[in-house]
């Protein structure tokens, strides 16, 4: 029986160049760039889903960790859900999310959500908490701590996950996100980031997911 078609999305060319050296990359289906940041990722993901008509989508790349003990640098995880930060009113401790204000990225039937959060396909054990997508990455450990306090339980930070998840939700296509941990959130010392190791770890998960015939969402 043929496997479902999986569209693999990668945010940046740097990430894709490294992943292209991994066994199995690009063999089972299309692997495309979705772009850096929430705006490009949303627009590009929607375009690529319409073009390829996949059965499912897998986003692969790097992220920062809020929990360096439970989700350490050089490890990787998939996530049970993804939450959005940065669309709303105010900054830092004064930020109020769009959902809290009563505005929603996309309103569907049923009661509106209390937070900007979307569930993800989770066919293997996930990180202990959601992924947080931000319009701007945390610039310091203090900013990271402030965000972690606003979104209790989030385990990692990226800049594309929620955008791709919303594009997939509108297209009614399941999405899993595999992120390798290259750094702690708020650490801007790029020379110390462990990007190759993080991507290697993310691809181990991603390659396994591509080979799975089903992606049942775990409760």
What is the CATH class? Alpha Beta
- The oligomeric status of these chains comes to single chain
Quote the CATH topology: Rossmann fold
What's the Cα radius of gyration? 16 Å
Count of strand segments? 11
Strand content: 15-25%
Q: Tally the helices.
A: 6
First-to-last CA distance: 27 Å
Give the structural class.
Answer: alpha/beta
Can you tell me the overall shape?
Answer: globular
CATH homologous superfamily placement: Nucleoside phosphorylase domain
Strands, helices and their partners?
Elements: E1 6-10, H1 13-19, E2 31-33, H2 38-52, E3 56-65, E4 76-78, E5 81-85, E6 88-89, E7 96-97, H3 98-101, E8 117-119, E9 131-134, H4 141-150, E10 156-158, H5 161-171, E11 175-184, H6 195-210
Parallel strand pairs: 1-2, 1-3, 3-11, 5-9, 9-10
Antiparallel strand pairs: 3-10, 4-11, 5-8, 6-7
Overview in brief:
By secondary structure, the protein is an alpha/beta fold. The protein has a single domain (6-104, 112-210), classed as Nucleoside phosphorylase domain (Rossmann fold, 3-Layer(aba) Sandwich). Helix content is 29%, strand content 23%.
Report on the architecture of this protein:
The protein has six helices and eleven strands. With about 220 residues, it is α/β, with parallel strands linked by helices. The chain has a single domain, classed as Nucleoside phosphorylase domain (Rossmann fold), CATH 3.40.50. The strands form two sheets. Strands 1, 2, 3, 4, 5, 8, 9, 10 and 11 form a nine-stranded mixed sheet that branches. Strands 6-7 form a two-stranded antiparallel ribbon. Helix 4 links the parallel strand 9 (about 130-135) and strand 10. The radius of gyration is 16 Å and the shape is globular. The model has no long low-confidence stretch (mean pLDDT about 90).
């Amino acid at each position: 029986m043929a496997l479902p078609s999986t569209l693999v999305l990668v945010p940046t060319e740097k990430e894709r160049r490294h992943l292209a050296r991994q066994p199995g990359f690009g063999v089972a289906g299309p692997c495309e760039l979705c772009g850096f940041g929430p705006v490009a990722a949303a627009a590009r993901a929607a375009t690529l889903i319409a073009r390829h008509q996949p059965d499912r989508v897998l986003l692969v790349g790097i992220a920062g960790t809020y929990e360096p003990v439970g989700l350490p640098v050089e490890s990787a995880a998939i996530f049970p859900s993804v939450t959005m930060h940065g669309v709303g009113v105010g900054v830092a401790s004064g930020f109020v999310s769009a959902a809290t204000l009563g505005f929603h990225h996309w309103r569907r039937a049923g009661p509106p959500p209390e937070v900007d959060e979307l569930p993800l396909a989770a066919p293997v054990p996930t990180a202990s908490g959601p992924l947080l997508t931000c319009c701007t990455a945390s610039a310091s450990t203090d900013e990271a701590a402030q965000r972690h306090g606003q979104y209790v339980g989030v385990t990692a930070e990226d800049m594309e996950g929620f955008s791709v998840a919303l594009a997939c939700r509108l297209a009614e296509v399941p999405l899993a996100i595999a992120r390798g941990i290259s750094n702690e959130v708020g650490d801007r010392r790029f020379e110390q980031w462990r990007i190759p190791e993080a991507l290697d770890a993310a691809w181990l998960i991603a390659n396994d997911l591509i080979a799975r015939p089903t992606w049942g969402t775990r409760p």
